[in-house]
From TrEMBL:
<dbReference type="GO" id="GO:0003905">
    <property type="term" value="F:alkylbase DNA N-glycosylase activity"/>
</dbReference>
<keyword id="KW-0378">Hydrolase</keyword>
<dbReference type="Pfam" id="PF02245">
    <property type="entry name" value="Pur_DNA_glyco"/>
</dbReference>
<feature type="compositionally biased region" description="Basic and acidic residues">
    <location>
        <begin position="222"/>
        <end position="231"/>
    </location>
</feature>
<dbReference type="InterPro" id="IPR011034">
    <property type="entry name" value="Formyl_transferase-like_C_sf"/>
</dbReference>
<protein>
    <recommendedName>
        <fullName>Putative 3-methyladenine DNA glycosylase</fullName>
        <ecNumber>3.2.2.-</ecNumber>
    </recommendedName>
</protein>
<dbReference type="InterPro" id="IPR036995">
    <property type="entry name" value="MPG_sf"/>
</dbReference>
<keyword id="KW-0227">DNA damage</keyword>
<dbReference type="InterPro" id="IPR003180">
    <property type="entry name" value="MPG"/>
</dbReference>
<feature type="region of interest" description="Disordered">
    <location>
        <begin position="204"/>
        <end position="231"/>
    </location>
</feature>
<comment type="similarity">
    <text>Belongs to the DNA glycosylase MPG family.</text>
</comment>
<keyword id="KW-0234">DNA repair</keyword>
<dbReference type="GO" id="GO:0003677">
    <property type="term" value="F:DNA binding"/>
</dbReference>
<feature type="compositionally biased region" description="Basic residues">
    <location>
        <begin position="212"/>
        <end position="221"/>
    </location>
</feature>
<dbReference type="GO" id="GO:0006284">
    <property type="term" value="P:base-excision repair"/>
</dbReference>
Amino acid sequence: MITGGDRTRWDDDGHTPLHRSFFDRPVLEVAPELLGRYLVRTAPDGRIVLRITEVEAYAGEADPGSHAYRGRTQRNASMFGPPGHAYVYFIYGMWFSLNLVCGPEGHASGVLLRAGEVLTGHDTARKRRPKARKDTELAKGPARLATALDVDRTLNGTDVCSTDDHAPLSILAGEAHDTEQIRSGPRTGVGGAGAVHPWRYWIDGDPTVRPYRPHQPRRRRGSLDSDGRTT
């Protein structure tokens, strides 16, 4: 990665997928260490590299904010699978969200990818997100990120640690972001007992990060925005 001006420039040399052992750890360790890593999405219409700037951690069946809180279902089965795989879900009948499974198999912990900076593949991302007024808005929010990357149910369960150059989804090692610039706070849109946990992590001052929004009663479908409900 080379930083220059207002945009981070992508250097395609020397990056390899994160090893599965990176994800096979407690989710509260994994989540902040994903900031600054590179997500690569390879699709028939193009390849996009994105730098992760905002995430949220969900701690499985012990976490009231998690989809796994009430146990395993057909919908959340991927969360209970091996670490280093994608968990994709559909929300409000409108948008997809992308999560990465963490911890030992069966613990159902995961990290929601909330935002990122598109480094390559801007034209492809713009076609998928034509309403974005500027590039910093292409993946600003979990639903926008998933739309820009063309994430749907076909990616649910995808191995993000694959070393295949043509893998549809992978997380590259690179370097973790400077911890002095990482902030934490309550998770967006999580209410009840899960609201107390400061398990949202972001890169301070990054223009792709959305402002915090507390939990609000669910509104009519027509009034929802593209932020979506978190896991």
